[in-house]
Design a protein that fits this description.
about 375 residues; five-stranded mixed beta sheet
Length: about 375
């Protein structure tokens, strides 16, 4: 970042260095020829050009006026040095901003050429036309280069701003999704702790009643232990989340409710073929909830954006993982809103919260595919 700032600062001062070099060369040439007053005027012209950023119109008018005065002092005969400073002034005029100041400088320069090359000053009409054409060519090239440079900078700035906006939108979507996941984790934790409390109270009642068998107490204590472990796992995932919303908390949906979800999506126009295979019993509540939400979001995107007629949903419980697959026969990512959307961000956040992964993309034969793999224990 610092190197970039230094590069920009140096790039903006290169022309200043050129002005100083040309002005010093002109000054030295005129002093060598024994012309101290014209030498002083040429130095003033160079200094005036250095003020073009603060007062572009005043600087360019004063510079051309000084050039005309310099030509008059030299009896309308300019050595190579003063004429080089004159041409440099046209180049600088083409780079002035605002652009009206550049055109004002060009007009002043043309007037100075007409006066300096007038027949009464030892010139001719052909000299005027030739000098005006050459100086206008220098001015035009400088103007075009300045316009293109400015356009490139504006495009780069717009691209940076767009990237900043996309990053901000993605961060906002991720934060909102984390807040929603946290509210749902609250349900899971509350459920687990409630089970633990009930089991502990029941175990205490058994002990107070003097029951001789310890199997009942042992069973209740182990159930409470399992519920507490589940609650601790959920609490670990809640670290870093700032706050909940004020909305009422609803019971968490389970994988068995995917049948109702598929029926609702089908009634809306997309036929859903649902397959629940493998061992899906005993899943941690948070993992089961994430699988449900991933399927729900994927089907919602299919319904809203893809134009698909059929979607296939597969949830497979394996020994260590739960695999979720949702594909459709729609138009793919380019037109269905999957790519880069907030829904996809939310699904990835859900999978990552439990140590899983999620991939999404268009299929070679058409349609869109979302696959997620979540560890059964919530973390690998």
């Amino acid at each position: 970042m610092q190197l970039e700032a230094v590069r920009k600062a140096l790039a903006g001062r290169v022309l200043d260095v050129v002005i100083v070099v040309v002005a010093v060369a002109t000054l030295a040439e005129l002093l060598t020829d024994g012309r101290p007053v014209p030498a002083l005027v040429s130095a003033v012209c160079g200094l005036v050009l250095l003020a073009r950023r603060r007062a572009p119109a005043i600087a360019i008018v004063a510079a051309f006026a000084g050039q005309l005065a310099l030509a008059a002092l030299l009896a309308w005969h300019e050595p190579n040095g003063p004429f080089g400073l004159f041409l440099l002034t046209f180049v600088i005029a083409g780079g002035l901003r605002p652009e009206w100041a550049a055109w004002l400088g060009w007009a002043c320069g043309m007037a100075a050429v007409a006066v300096a090359e007038a027949p009464g000053s030892g010139g001719s009409v052909s000299d005027i036309l030739l000098t005006c054409g050459f100086c206008s060519a220098l001015f035009g090239m400088s103007l075009l280069v300045t316009r293109r440079t400015r356009a490139h900078r504006q495009m780069a700035e717009r691209a940076r701003q767009a990237e900043t906006d996309r990053s901000a939108a993605a961060a906002e979507a991720a934060a909102a999704e984390r807040a929603r996941i946290t509210r749902e984790m609250h349900d899971v934790v509350a459920h687990s702790l409630t089970v633990a409390v009930v089991q502990c109270v029941a175990a205490g009642d058994d002990l107070d009643s003097g029951v001789s068998e310890t199997d009942s107490v042992r069973t209740r204590v182990r159930a409470a232990e399992g519920a507490c472990r589940d609650a601790l796992d959920e609490l670990r995932r809640m670290l870093g989340v700032l706050r909940f919303g004020a909305e009422p908390l609803a019971p968490s949906p389970r994988l068995g409710e995917l049948t109702d979800l598929a029926r609702a999506i089908g009634a809306a126009g997309v036929t859903v073929e649902l397959s629940l295979d493998g061992d899906l019993d005993g899943l941690p509540p948070g993992v089961e909830l994430s699988c449900y939400r991933i399927v729900q979001e994927a089907l919602t995107n299919t319904l809203k954006h893809s134009g698909a007629r059929t979607a296939h949903v597969s949830v497979v419980g394996e020994a260590r993982d739960v695999r979720v697959r949702v594909d459709d026969d729609g138009c793919g990512a380019a037109a269905n809103g999957h790519s880069g959307g907030q829904g996809l961000i939310g699904m990835r956040e859900r999978a990552a919260a439990y140590g899983g992964t999620l991939s999404a993309g268009p299929q070679p034969a058409g349609g869109y595919l979302i696959e997620a793999v979540l560890p059964r224990g919530g973390r690998r």
